[in-house]
TrEMBL record:
<comment type="similarity">
    <text>Belongs to the glycogen phosphorylase family.</text>
</comment>
<keyword id="KW-0328">Glycosyltransferase</keyword>
<dbReference type="InterPro" id="IPR000811">
    <property type="entry name" value="Glyco_trans_35"/>
</dbReference>
<dbReference type="Pfam" id="PF00343">
    <property type="entry name" value="Phosphorylase"/>
</dbReference>
<dbReference type="GO" id="GO:0008184">
    <property type="term" value="F:glycogen phosphorylase activity"/>
</dbReference>
<keyword id="KW-0021">Allosteric enzyme</keyword>
<dbReference type="GO" id="GO:0005980">
    <property type="term" value="P:glycogen catabolic process"/>
</dbReference>
<keyword id="KW-0808">Transferase</keyword>
<protein>
    <recommendedName>
        <fullName>Alpha-1,4 glucan phosphorylase</fullName>
        <ecNumber>2.4.1.1</ecNumber>
    </recommendedName>
</protein>
<feature type="modified residue" description="N6-(pyridoxal phosphate)lysine">
    <location>
        <position position="683"/>
    </location>
</feature>
<dbReference type="InterPro" id="IPR011833">
    <property type="entry name" value="Glycg_phsphrylas"/>
</dbReference>
<dbReference type="GO" id="GO:0030170">
    <property type="term" value="F:pyridoxal phosphate binding"/>
</dbReference>
<keyword id="KW-0119">Carbohydrate metabolism</keyword>
<comment type="function">
    <text>Allosteric enzyme that catalyzes the rate-limiting step in glycogen catabolism, the phosphorolytic cleavage of glycogen to produce glucose-1-phosphate, and plays a central role in maintaining cellular and organismal glucose homeostasis.</text>
</comment>
<dbReference type="InterPro" id="IPR035090">
    <property type="entry name" value="Pyridoxal_P_attach_site"/>
</dbReference>
<keyword id="KW-0663">Pyridoxal phosphate</keyword>
<dbReference type="GO" id="GO:0005737">
    <property type="term" value="C:cytoplasm"/>
</dbReference>
Length: 838
């Protein structure tokens, strides 16, 4: 409004001065030096790599911000339908390399830095990971944000700005120890604090019931406490587009009003305590993957985050002066697992209690707005909240949940009369002591679409956890959206040599935005010169990984050995235990060989990495066993280079970027039916790494795409698991003999004091081997022998490797995101125009 009053010269001056900075080497160097000498207040010479990183990051950030402003400015005017991706985890990793590549500025920055006396790789290595996630679920959110931005979809992520990300792992005496990940120690250049955007979030208190002037009963929640949510925006630039999306992360702070009240009451200590409790909400990421801790602070995080996000979304919608019934035409909200399910309840509360809509109209808006992604079938991961705890924190939300449940069960009863068992099974409330709120049921009832994350998983949930809901709602509500990964980070950025070879071979870099074009590589398997280049790149990547292993584990490994990798969260269902048991088997086999026999053994380096939840005792013992086996095997002169075992500490996104391009074979060996999808399987195959795996999660679809000659499949199938468990429990199927031999070796003390490992070995007791290690062991050993034999035929192997990459087009997160956009969100791309202004 004021702008319109400005004289023309003022307007022109602003226009002139807000022109974007150019992207030539000279301008970029000036911007870097400017940040060194002013923003960082350092002398222009004699800086270290970290200072150089900070300056380059700030210069990159300036360019990100101008794209962010341009995008968000144009979107505000056009006001298209947007999608909001609600995720408690965004596992972004490092940002600088990715931002420069996506903005097309990497080459120019490379040269600019070099002439200033620094090396790009060293500068990149100075960045700490943003590790606001546990594993696959959080990294998936990050890949989806990259694809949404690249495909020009108007999308925002909403999450929490944890002060501490996933803990740092160090190995002490073979055991995992945890250290805090205070990643904000040196300021975070990749976020824009929006200190002006602050939202009050209430907790506790009571509900007032009042009759309004029309005699309608109204409910008014009067919270006992409130905290502030402050916004921090993380720009997400698309690849080869001006579009720049946003992840808004909330930070909790004490409210000023509350401070004042306490201070005025003279209760200084209480006011400080309240302030500390408010800050605690966004202090730390819960370190459990695929398990639910049930802690009050976690529920507070979930409400704080969903309420702040909903408030923000509703405020944006209200600016458009549309009718409430238009809300689902402007807003789609995707729930990344059940963690944000309270958003359903919060929107219903805002519409009914604050906007005075009637219940049914509100509920129709809510269910048209939300869609829900399920990521797991493991019972220990299913979110449930105890009703008494919930009522204490969110009394009005509890009432709304009971009402949602009542109306829902009434409809079920109408459709299927007189079936108490059915009502009990489908109820949002579990009748336990105390009662529990089943968040997955609430998410299904409050959403218009429910999806699993791989074909097998999506069909499994329809016959197990959501079976009754499929019968009630019909098949159409329950769909599959197979996960994907971004080829920008997971090939172009992490494997630059392979990316360059692919671009050279295909004659263009279009494949980075249309991954199906990789199929053009299939024609090159007969080209010996091409195969040689392909394998030389793999070897160079292995050399790089060998250096990292030397540095982090102090173990020397040969890049000519087969690199066998299992990196992922440590969990019984993922069966790292089975892997290390098979390594012991391999060790014993080699030890029993004559020199002549040894000459034909395929040398192998077995590489492990991954964090165990700090309270997951058995998973931590697996880490200890791996390190104990490594200590013995790596020292044994009878084995030499035929077998090496390493555990790479503190596996994270930036370490994955080194490991993934360097793998020959990687292990995705969960008990069939337990791994919803897996996404690292896709990353490895995309980089020409073969995989050994079970028919689980996305392995099934990878097999479909690359063909059975290019993958090593073993083990039982998902539909056989129930019978196998039954058989070992009630018919006492004996333990596999090879496995028995391995267990005896451990029990004889081959690897440290066997007492340490007794609890672990107990999980294999006949009848208790829940993850079916014994049942799958023989076929696992055979599959590993097939890997050895195949690797010896290097020419054939190189062809398999090329075909792996060639057939991975389906697994781009661009494909996944497009499916969500078209089949769930009903949103269209919006092309941002480069108007040349900041
Ligand atoms: O989500 C990934 C899948 O690829 C993996 O197979 C799946 O295990 C993973 C509670 C989870 N499922 N559930 C979680 C994480 C944190 C938490 O607090 C559950 N993670 C997965 C992406 O679809």
């Amino acid at each position: 409004a004021e702008k319109a009053k400005w004289p023309k010269e003022t307007v022109d001056l602003w226009a002139k001065l807000s022109k974007k900075e150019a992207n030539d080497i000279d301008t970029i160097q000036r911007s870097i030096v400017h940040h060194v000498t002013t923003t960082l207040a350092r002398a222009a010479y004699n800086m270290d790599n970290f200072t150089a990183y900070q300056a380059v990051a700030l210069s990159t950030r300036d360019r990100l911000i101008s794209r962010w402003n341009e995008t968000q400015g144009q979107l505000s005017k056009a006001d298209p339908k947007r999608v909001y991706y609600l995720s408690l985890e965004f596992l972004l990793g490092r940002s600088m390399d990715n931002a420069l590549l996506n903005m097309g500025l990497k080459g120019t920055y490379d040269k600019s830095i070099e002439k200033l006396g620094f090396n790009m790789e060293d500068v990149i290595e100075s960045e700490v990971d943003a590790a606001l996630g546990n594993g696959g679920l959080g990294r998936l959110a990050a890949c989806y944000m990259d694809s949404l931005a690249t495909l020009d979809y108007p999308a925002w992520g909403y999450g929490l700005r944890y002060n501490y990300g996933i803990f740092q792992q160090r190995i002490v005496d073979g055991y995992q120890t945890e250290y805090p990940d205070y990643w904000l120690n040196f300021d975070n250049p990749w976020e824009l604090p929006r200190l002006d955007i602050s939202i009050q979030i209430g907790f506790g208190g009571h509900v007032q019931t009042i009759q309004d002037e029309y005699g309608v009963t109204r409910h008014n929640w009067v919270p006992a406490q409130s905290v502030q949510a402050i916004a921090y925006d993380v720009p997400i630039p698309g690849y080869d587009t001006e579009n720049c999306n946003n992840i808004r992360l909330w930070r909790s702070k004490p409210t000023r009003v509350f401070d004042l009240t306490s201070f005025n009451e003279g209760n200084y200590e209480k006011s400080v305590e309240d302030a500390t409790n408010a800050e605690k909400i966004t202090s730390v990421l819960y370190p459990n993957d695929n398990t639910m801790a049930g802690k009050e602070l976690r529920l507070k995080q979930q409400y704080f985050w969903t309420a702040a996000s909903l408030h923000d979304i509703v405020r944006r919608f209200k600016k458009s002066m549309r009718e409430w019934s238009d809300f689902p035409d402007q807003v789609a909200i995707q729930l990344n697992d059940t963690h944000p399910t309270l958003a359903i309840v919060e929107l219903q509360r805002l519409l009914v209690d604050e906007e005075m809509l009637n219940w049914d109209d509100a509920w129709e808006i809510v269910t048209k707005t939300f869609a829900f992604t399920n990521h797991t079938v493991l019972p220990e991961a299913m979110e449930k909240w105890s009703v008494p705890m919930f009522e204490y924190l969110l009394p009005r939300h509890l009432q709304i949940i009971f009402d949602i449940n009542l109306f829902f069960l009434q409809k079920v009863e109408k459709k299927v009369p007189n079936d108490r068992g059915l009502l009990n099974r489908m109820s949002i409330i579990e009748e336990a002591q105390p009662q529990q709120i089943r968040m997955a049921h609430l998410a299904v009832v409050g959403s218009h679409k429910v999806n699993g994350v791989a074909a097998l998983h999506s069909s499994l949930i329809k016959t197990t956890i959501f079976k009754d809901f499929v019968d009630y709602y019909g098949e159409e509500k329950f769909i599959n959206k197979t996960n994907g990964v971004t080829p920008r980070r997971w090939l172009h950025q992490s494997n630059p040599q392979l990316s360059a070879l692919i671009t050279e071979t295909l004659g263009s870099d279009k494949w980075l935005k249309d991954l199906s074009l990789l199929k053009g590589l299939a024609a090159k398997t007969g080209d010996a010169a091409f195969r040689k280049k392909w394998m030389a790149i793999k070897r160079a990547n292995k050399v790089r990984l060998a250096e990292l292993i030397k540095e982090r584990c102090g173990v020397e490994v040969s890049p000519d050995a087969l690199f066998d990798v299992q990196v992922k969260r440590i969990h019984e269902y993922k069966r790292q235990f089975m892997n290390i048991l098979s390594v012991i088997h391999r060790y014993r086999t080699i030890k029993s060989m004559t020199a002549a026999q040894k000459a034909s053994v395929q040398p192998r380096v077995v590489i492990f990495g991954g964090k165990a939840a700090p309270g997951y005792y058995i998973a931590k013992l697996v880490i200890k066993l791996i390190n104990s086996v490594a200590a013995v095997v790596n020292q044994d002169p009878a084995v030499g280079d035929l077998l090496k075992v390493v555990f790479i500490p503190d596996y994270n996104v930036s370490v994955a970027e080194v490991i993934v391009p360097a793998s020959d074979i990687s292990q995705h060996i969960s008990t069939a039916g337990t791994e919803a999808s897996g996404t690292s399987n896709m990353k490895f195959v995309l980089n020409g790494g073969l995989i050994i795996g079970t028919l689980d999660g996305a392995n099934v679809e990878i097999l479909e795409e690359i063909g059975e000659d290019n993958i090593f499949i073993f083990g039982c199938m998902a539909h056989e698991v129930e019978d196998l468990r039954h058989a070992q429990r009630y018919r006492g199927v004996p333990m596999d003999p090879a496995l028995q031999g391995v267990i005896s070796a451990i029990e004889k003390g081959t690897f440290e004091d066997p007492k340490i490992f007794q609890p672990l070995i107990s999980t294999l007791t006949v009848g208790k081997d829940f993850y079916l290690i014994s049942a799958d062991f023989a076929s696992y050993i055979t599959a590993n022998q097939q890997v050895d034999a195949a690797y010896k035929k290097q020419d054939e192997w190189s062809k398999k490797s090329i075909l792996c990459t060639a057939h991975m087009g389906k697994f781009s997160s661009d494909r996944s995101v497009k499916e969500y956009a078209e089949e769930i969100w009903n949103i269209k791309p919006y092309s941002v125009k480069d108007e040349g202004y900041m």
